[in-house]
What does this fold into?
Amino acid sequence: MKLSSFWRLVRGEHAIMLAFAVLVGMLVAANASGAQLPAAEIVFLALLVPVFVEFGAFALNDWADVEADRKNKRADRPIVAGEVSKEFALIVGIIFLIAGVGAGYFIGGAAFWIAFAFAVLSVAYDLFLKDLPLLGNAFIGLSMAISFSFGSIVASGDIVAPVAYISIAALIVGVGREIAKSIQDMEGDKEARKSSTLPIAIGEANAAIVAALCYFAFVPFAIMPFFAGLKPNMLSLGLVVVSFLAFVVMGAEFLKKHDEKFLEGARKTSLYALALGIFAYLLAALI
It folds into this structure.
């Protein structure tokens, strides 16, 4: 098996972003509360928690979704492409979910329970939550949001106000991105999983409108951390503006079209735009 196949199985780029989100949550919380960052080993374990849980969740997702992915002609999925077996994906999923919870255990306190809860919810999502309208989308959004809050809790023992707004912004964008993905996967989800995802329940066009509204709603929450204690500089403020303008443009496009090519491009662009916004918060906390 090639390393690239494993990377695509666990969606490594998402894991890196979630670890980065935890780091940003810790730094923003320390900046806003005046708390000292925890010891290096705690920071390291805190970064491993979302990486391991994400690895496990996505491997299990491909294991559970193999028939739907085949119907959707997802040749980018390593099981569908014949690069890894279903059994391998199942083993990888179980091992990394346990490892993620284990990393949380060594941090202790709320960090352990957050890791445990999201490992359990990840399994529930892969097995049945993703088949339900909006609930599956909400879980994915929450998994993005909790990374920032998790970092804040590890660093300061609480979710400080700037991190709370960043988490809400990530939640909203995560829901919008996942609705876009459910539009892409609608045919396979309906035939193979008998799903009732949002686009299946209300139609592609209406689901695209909901995704657009999520992208528009991101804007006020993206700027609120700077009114809640996170001090901006020209660079960080400029990057956040670029980030939310990208979401506004994508939201406007969602109202006009939702074909496969556009949806795939919009998902990638939204990931880059979100990463840009996260980097802006990091700069604000450091400079």
Notes: Residues 260-286 form the longest helix (27 residues). The mean pLDDT is 90. The CA atoms of residues 18 and 50 lie 6 Å apart. The chain has one domain: 3-286.
